[in-house]
Amino acid sequence: MCGIFAAISNKPVAKVLVEGLKRLEYRGYDSAGVVTLDDGALRKVCAVGKVEALESICESEPLTGHVGIAHTRWATHGAPSERNSHPHVADGVAVVHNGIVENHSEVRSELQKRGCRFASDTDSEVIPWLISTSVGQGAKPGHAIHALSERLSGSYAIAVLTERDPNTLYAKRSGSPLVAAIGPEGGYLSSDVSALAGFAAEAIVLDDGDQVELRFDSVAVYDRDGQPVTRSVVGVDDACGAADKGGFPHFMLKEIHEQPSVSAVIQHRYAVEALIAESIDVDFRHVDRLRLIACGTSYYACMVAKRWFAEVAGIAADVELGSEYRYAPDITNPPREFAVLVSQSGETADTLASLEKLKSQRIGTLGIVNQQVSTLAREADYFLPLLAGPEIGVASTKAFTAQLMVLAHLAAHMAEQRGYRLAATRFRSALAKVPKLLSAVLHNEAAIIAVAERFSQATSALFVGRGALYPLALEGALKMKEISYIHAEGYAAGELKHGPIALVDENTPVVALAPSGELFAKVASNIREIAARNGRITILGDRRAILAMSDVASHALTMPITDELIQPIVAAIPLQFLAYHVAVSRGYDVDRPRNLAKSVTVE
């Protein structure tokens, strides 16, 4: 969620800090700020809104310091405002923080009794006050920061700058991601490896509990016990081009159009190069049940995969929200389970907490992740990459399709191991057609724009589907909510009569996912029930289905005729296009929807 960037150099770092924040904008934020050490004193500049506003202030009031810390804030405690923006400063100590201090009220009360005067409503401000109080009592900054683990409950990644030690940046990680690097022009800290592109060729990935002392030309890492350690180093791809819109008006639209090529890459790596067999040493003949864990869009991908695992591989699966599973009661004498955790970022707090729970139960784990330098990729027993490339738009598009593709190949792999070879062959044959099918769907964008116009004035919308397309109805509704701010709900079509049909009227558009197939007749019946109540119906289907419903559906989103197994993959793009063009017609920033963050690193 929040983004941290810090730099120490032999020249002013303000422009570098702002550039680092721009590269972290995709994480979501509502304010931004920097602190540099100018002539021995900490100087803070901040702005509510976008990084561009902060950049303008820095240009009109230049910061001259050669060392500084910067932050994009997504509000958790205290409203978005300048007084609540980071960095927070207390008696010569400046801190930026990503995470949540769960016991902040208790700590704040204690510090106030000792004379500390707080300037914000945030939980984060207790951190610089704890450090400055300890330093004031004679502790070295590094020792004061190390002692935080004994005082704070919750998760955090922090970067610290002190007037007492102007030649050192300090950092500590406990539950939230952080990396460090040394480049030709100095040292850097960042929440995300990709933000270091062009600044450094390699980055040090910090483990939980690690603390860093970073100078212009050196970096020292200490573990949670304060002992010097060497951590893994990863290459920093020169990924600046990935942050370019490539001629598209928004990253989201660019990423929608990238899906045919992403699916082709996945198809080659997983089908031709057999990446799963190379990466996972598990005999799924000895697994009785799968547990699929994810949040948000990734959860809907798992809902689709549940049906694939059952139909293709003959293995039952439970799908769990990470935010719920972590608190679920343990089962005595559970069946032979294997868990699959899915996350675009690999840093989703609830998914990682679920991973810890699974590990404590000695259940094998597989992480399916887009960000290969991430906690989930590193700490799960096995790891499969999504290979989608950087996804900048907050609303997931190509990563969702990539999740479906990788989960589909995993189902085919399990099917083959478990003796369902014909089913595996059929599924793989269908998956091989996905790149061309997705390319065909892209050609229908102009028609979808016309459909979007009728949604732009709506205040509510419904999405309905059956079988493997029910999760796509949920995903379509989520996309509409996320970026157009239209209240939208997804339902299983067969459940309409159990309540949701009461919402149907001439002012509520309904998107019915109804391509040809085994369940078409059932969905068609539900569509006619909607039409009988003057519902405004848009059908998402192939030409046969659209023709069959032409008497009641006023608009159509067209997809090719496909094998039913891959219909959920092919149906994703029309739903993404619809949400995108509705949001654009309503004048919203689709890449940075309000109140949302790309990487949900707090609970």
- Shape, per Cα inertia axes: globular
CATH architecture field of the largest domain: 4-Layer Sandwich
Mean pLDDT: 93
Assess the beta-strand content as a share of residues: 15-25%
Helicity, in percent?
25-40%
N- to C-terminal distance: 11 Å
For the record, the count of structural domains works out to 3
CATH topology of the largest domain: Glutamine Phosphoribosylpyrophosphate, subunit 1, domain 1
Primary descriptors:
Rossmann fold, 603 residues, 8-stranded antiparallel β-sheet, Glutamine Phosphoribosylpyrophosphate, subunit 1, domain 1, 3 domains, 6-stranded antiparallel β-sheet
How are the SSEs ordered, and which strands pair?
Layout: E1 3-9, H1 14-23, E2 31-38, E3 41-48, H2 51-60, E4 67-73, E5 88-90, E6 93-101, H3 104-113, H4 126-136, H5 141-146, H6 148-151, E7 154-162, E8 169-174, E9 179-183, E10 186-190, E11 202-205, E12 211-214, E13 219-222, E14 233-235, H7 251-257, H8 259-272, H9 275-279, E15 289-294, H10 296-313, E16 316-321, H11 322-325, E17 337-343, H12 349-360, E18 364-369, H13 375-379, E19 382-385, H14 398-417, H15 421-431, H16 434-442, H17 445-455, E20 460-465, H18 470-484, E21 487-492, E22 509-513, H19 520-531, E23 536-541, H20 543-548, E24 555-558, H21 567-585
Parallel strand pairs: 15-16, 15-17, 17-18, 18-19, 20-21, 20-22, 22-23, 23-24
Antiparallel strand pairs: 1-4, 1-10, 2-3, 2-4, 5-6, 6-7, 7-8, 8-12, 9-10, 9-11, 11-14, 12-13
GO cellular component, one term: cytosol
Main location: cytoplasm
Subcellular location: Cytoplasm
